[in-house]
Amino acid sequence: MDIYQTENECDFSSEITDNVCNDSSFNNYDDVVGAGEDQQLQVLLNSAGHAYIAMIMSDSQLLLIECPFKVGSDPLKEVFLQESRRLTILWKNNDERNGVVDVSSLLDGDDIYFFAIYKNAKIRVWSAVQKKALVTTSVSSLTANADPIDADTFGVKTSLTDDSIIVTFLVQMKDEAVFFVTRFVNDSFDVLINHSLANKRVMDFMNLQSAKEDERCILWVITREAFDPNSKVSTFQPYLLWRCLMKMDGFAAWEKVQPAVNDQCLDELRFAFPKTLNAIKHRIFNGECYSFDVVKRALQVACKRGPLISVSYNDWSSLLTYVDDYVNSGHFVQSYLTPEDTSSLLVLNLVTNSSTKASALKFYESLLRYCDEFQEAGLQPLGLWCSPSLDLIGVIQQCRFTIFQKGDAQMKTIIRTTACGDALHRCFVAANKFFKNEERITKIFNDDEQLVLLSDFNENYEHLCYIIRRFAEHSPIDEVQLNPVHSDCVKASFTAGFLSILLRHRLLRRFKFANLIMGMTKLFLKLTTNVSKLSKSQAFSKNLQERTASQGLWETITRTHDSTIHQISNNYRIMWSSLSYRLTKQHHRLSQDGSHRLTVGQALFQLGPHLVRRLDAYISHSEANDGGSSSSSSETKPLYEAESEYTTLIREIIDGSIVSLWPESTLLTLPYFLADKGYAEALSNYCHDNEPFISELAFAFRLYQGIAYCIQGDFDRSYEAFNEVLRSIRDYDDAFNIAISRLLKEPIENNRARSHSIAEYLKLIMDIFRIYNGPMHALRVGKLIMAYADAEDPILSKVYTDLFKLYLTVNDFNEAVSMIRKNPSMDERVRCLRELISTMILKLEHRNLVLLDYGELDDTVAEILEQECLASFLKWDSPVYQVAFSFYSLRYLYAQAARLFIFYSFRLSTEAQTKAILEKRCTVLATAVGAVQCTDQVEGLAFELIGAPSQPNNSAQQPQLIRQIYPHDLCSTLSKQDYNVIIRGEKSPPIEGVIIDADYLRREHLKVEARLHLLEKYQSLRNPPTMPNEIASECVQYKLFDYAFTIIRTFDLDVYNLLEAVAYECIYMDHEDQQDQLELEARLDSYSNEIGELTKEIRRARVCPNIALPEWVTTNRQFVDNAQHYTMKPHWKILHGYLKYTLQMDKTNTKAIRVVAHKFLEYSKPLPDWLAQLYNENNFGDMIFSYVEFGEYDTAFDIIDEFLEQQIKVVATEQEKYECLIPFTQIEQLIVRAENSADESNFEERITSTQNKVFKILDNFSNFTKAASMLN
């Protein structure tokens, strides 16, 4: 924003401007009026909500458009407002004479009036409701002269007062602009005031009602201005703003408002920047004099490069960084160094520092010129704007808008108490020249001018001394009562920017005013010295006595107030420069909301509204008078005009901000805000500007200076600054304790704060170091706290907590645990342990977490770990479970470790059973089995699971938390556990729940492992079964025979399907081997007889097929007994192992052998020798029956014959002791089946032979029995 002043109200009435984006424009109404284009429009709403739009078209016709409240299917109503129904051709021929020039609208009751003025000086008042002209008159009727008026153009504006309609007409002539302020009453215009503005071309005007009783209205006017080539100011604004206060008695006077671009020109900024280069840089990059686009375009031209780097809009910091980089680049050297310097650079590689500064000044002067040229194009005024509710008025331009602001009431009051305004003005102008010319009086004034100027000083020395004294006494003090601002509008970007620029403008003006006063004092002394050296002329002798008296009073005043004014001036400069500092991105907290593009002043009002205070001048002066602080305070009481609530708020905030932000205030509000928000560079600059510190604020400033160093990362200097302040703790320092209280967010009453201890101060410093990533220095401060603090100090608990966090930050976990154990607060211990565990798990410090010595806190750590494991948000693969298990195992708490992993296994069962989940479950269950086995087996450790274990379910109703399935109503060694550890004794009561012991866990592990292998076998995505019988069936299907057999044994299932499947695979492999062998034999037999039989045998041995074993043979080796049957084929060993272990489980169950044998007989394959032997040894009769059932009569007869031959020998040996174990039923069935077979004739001899053998055995046994009985 910019600020500019009115000429006739000294230096304290002002307007402000703000840069705005020129991206929006009014839409024309081509969709309404066809091909027409509008030049001007007026829009108003009546009480019914209907909108009426009056548009001046490009052909100067007046079009009225009526828009209903609710948009329906009916089109908008369009009416051309014409007084007579002439032919169109006549209208067009008379267009130049009858066209509309300007129109203004006004709502009066339910009707809307449109006041239109025409090129032929006609005035018509149109009714929007009646759509006809109510009044028709001419401009000449407003004047006493009835002759036609020769005017270039006309204008009309309306305003509404409490009792009438005010209509203002503009008659623009060649040499002047005449305004007629009229009252529209009874369909006629009553002229109230007419006033002219000579030699000006009006671009826009506005008539506003005045709040003063003696003023009728205030007329605001924009006039076009031409550039003055003799002007010493490089900036130019192509318009001027005027205002005219029209009194009730008819008096009116024009006041010219100085152009806004002159507000921060170099002439003004040199007061704040002694060096021209700094003033130029501030003017270009302060974001107020020029828009961002203008500076960016100017840089592109001045840097003589291609397109600039891409920077976000309004990011002034990046733009300034780019310029600094360019000035330090080789491209700048080639473009802006003089030819002599360039030659020196090429030859000697050396350029003097003065040459570099001169080149930089040349570059910035060129950049400033480009900015002025580009900015000038955007300063064209679009019109006046006003906000009656906010009581604001200004000018809208193409690149920004201005806001008129009333002046500094306090400074006006000081000036108005003096007389001789013209002489006073001459003295200030002379002081300004004297100050700008580095106080060289002979350079700007000759001898005669010095005599005249000294005469002015002598004539007005009393008034000048009064001003000096009044200005020195106006310094803000802490005792003034300030009130907080209870308004959210302060945080709004518009109000924050408005307050910022208005406050900085006021500070800059007061700073300049203070410099002018100091310049006057020095100028008077210089004049006195110089004039004394001149020849004593008559004029000099006449004024000698008067000069001597004035000099004595002047010296008295200057001795009394010179240092005060100098300090006031310096304070205004510090405040202005600090609030004008543009923030940059802080590395410790990157700003994503664009706050780094703000100035400190904008940030203060927008981000720190709780620090903003308002000052009611009337209350403050009343309190001052009541307290008797100044006998003349009533003389300087500021006078304020009637104003809106918003204007009052702005004024009181500005007055209050000057007091609260005063650098000598013990509150030190501005450095606190900068420290709180972390704006290190701005805080460091502010502290540097205040050096040397005054004694009352030295320690507080040193504290803020240390904070600035800390934010910037210079921890050594920061620690040094904090350490210097330490000695001031014992002696109460008001400003220092207020600073500590504000940093601790403690309330401050009556600008006083409580006294703080050394421990509290060091705790604050430790927090600052910790916040800004200085852990090592924070640890040093923490050790100091433990040295200074008492054992009962409640702050120790927080200190130990902070030290723990610091040690945790630097990964010193042993010291962190030590701080936890020393902390006197148990609650803090638990909180710190939680943070320690979560942090170490996050940092993957699992091993260190388990190995740390927690001492008496072991149980607390265990409980925290289990609570973490029970958390519903914990992921299934979280390392917390493993950490907790390791924690228990390392401390030999195997029961707790087993219980934890049992819970973990059930937790995993609630997840979708993917491969990763199943693998994890396998590992967890196996580990749980190991933990259970590590317990004392004599005690019989087991777990009782309350309720039924969860079964995997894919439905959405399945509970996800294992804690919801297993209640916590049983006692446990630790709180909130799902399982109860039971030590089984001899007299232990029976257990009603499900016992979870090692066998249970093994069974669960077996199922999960089998499901995992099934998942690997699946060709498509599917879930393995969960029931044991289904798992075994699937394992058989996918040839996982070992898993199937293990599940069958474990869960006591039928093994017959497994044996059938394995037998089939074995038969199939033998069949394939046999086919390969037959093919080989056939090929060998086909050879000619030329080769001998020996050669054939050799080839047969060489080409014997070596077929690779299938996967199921190589993987299912768990039950193979390699110690027996060395010659047995590998696949037969698998089947043999299953049969062997099956018979070991139940020796009487020979069905398993029968199932295998039937599978062989089914495919007409002979039983292997080992199988036949096994079958014969376990159930010979069943084997005979199996052969008979499958029609293998020959084989059955062979086996029976062999058996009977053996029995004949046994009978002969054992005689009467022989046990008749002959399978008569099976032999009988065999004989019957053989007799009924188709080829009965082939079995007659074998039937007879078998019968004879049976009879022989029976006869021999009978004979031996009888003989034995006879002997007995």
TrEMBL record:
Q: Which GO terms describe its cellular component?
A: nuclear pore
Cell compartments where the protein resides? Nucleus
- Entry keyword set: Nucleus, Transport
Task: Give the Gene Ontology MF terms in alphabetical order.
Answer: structural constituent of nuclear pore
Q: Which InterPro entries match?
A: Beta-prop_Nup120_160, Nucleoporin_Nup160, TPR_NUP160_M
Task: Give a yes or no for keyword Repressor in this entry.
Answer: no
Q: What is its main location?
A: nucleus
Tell me where in this chain the Nucleoporin Nup120/160 beta-propeller domain is found: 45-405
- Ranges where the NUP160 middle TPR domain occurs: 662-931
Pfam families the UniProt entry points to:
Beta-prop_Nup120_160, TPR_NUP160_120_M
* Matching PANTHER family: NUCLEAR PORE COMPLEX PROTEIN NUP160
**What protein is this chain from?**
Nuclear pore complex protein Nup160
Its source organism is: Panagrolaimus superbus
Record lineage: Eukaryota, Metazoa, Ecdysozoa, Nematoda, Chromadorea
